[in-house]
Design a protein that fits this description.
Layout (H helix, E strand, L loop, with lengths): L1 H16 L4 H24 L19 H7 L1 H19 L1 H11 L1 H6 L4 H27 L10 H11 L4 H21 L7 H17 L17
């Protein structure tokens, strides 16, 4: 979480403080993170692919279905976070400020909302939450593997667009993409289906889903814009 928040603060420094293009900064930090993980893998563990396994540390017992739900508290934490985030966003003064800054930062500033501060806090929180997801992925595998996320961060971005920036809808979009991921894992044992086509399923579904939504989804008005 600290790592995710740190990279998010770097993003905020570039895009909020120095008014850099948000897309360019995002791509640059993504490339920086890829290079940094490989560098520190080599520096600390003398490997360019994997960190050493930690067999005695686990967040949950191995299992599937109901058993996995019973033994994995992070699943319940993730489920509870959906109404919690929706409540904060739609029912609290902070959430009102976040939405106001996202729609019209100039108008928010005119009524006394500290726009830059709200942006910094929102970006830092989003980075910390994303870092928690990455930490869980590492802990569940007992080690870090280069490229283990396999582009899931971009699928998460697609889920936000598909869910039209609404937490409950985004959660449903995530479940849809997760079902596609599970489906392709189940198909990997089928001999007559090429593995490459099976692994494409989640990404193809993402493209198909976005193709029907992008033209109709209305993002926050100030999304991607630099507040002057």
């Amino acid at each position: 979480m600290a790592g995710g928040a740190s990279f998010a603060l770097l993003y905020a420094l570039c895009s909020i403080r120095y008014k850099a293009d948000q897309v360019v900064v995002g791509v640059a930090i993504n490339l920086l993170a890829i290079g940094a993980t490989r560098f520190f893998l080599k520096l600390l563990f003398h490997s360019s692919a994997n960190s050493p396994r930690v067999p005695g540390f686990s967040v949950a017992e191995t299992g599937s279905g109901i058993r996995a739900l019973a033994h994995n508290p992070l699943i319940w934490l993730g489920a509870l976070s959906i109404p919690a985030v929706a409540w904060v966003l739609y029912r609290t003064p902070f959430g009102l400020r976040v939405r106001a800054v996202g729609e019209h930062p100039g108008a928010a500033l005119s009524v006394g909302v500290p726009v830059a501060r709200v942006q910094w806090i929102a970006v830092a929180l989003s980075g910390a939450i994303a870092g928690m997801g990455g930490a869980y992925l590492t802990l569940d595998q007992h080690q870090f593997t280069d490229q283990m996320t396999a582009g899931r961060g971009f699928i998460a971005l697609a889920a936000i667009i598909f869910g039209r920036w609404d937490p409950p809808r985004i959660a449903l979009a995530c479940l849809l993409f997760a079902a596609a991921e599970t489906f392709q894992i189940r198909l990997q044992g089928v001999a007559f289906v090429p593995a490459q086509f099976v692994e494409m399923i989640p990404y193809v579904l993402t493209i198909v889903a976005l193709a029907g939504v992008v033209g109709r989804a209305v993002p926050p008005a100030a999304l991607g814009k630099t507040d002057e």
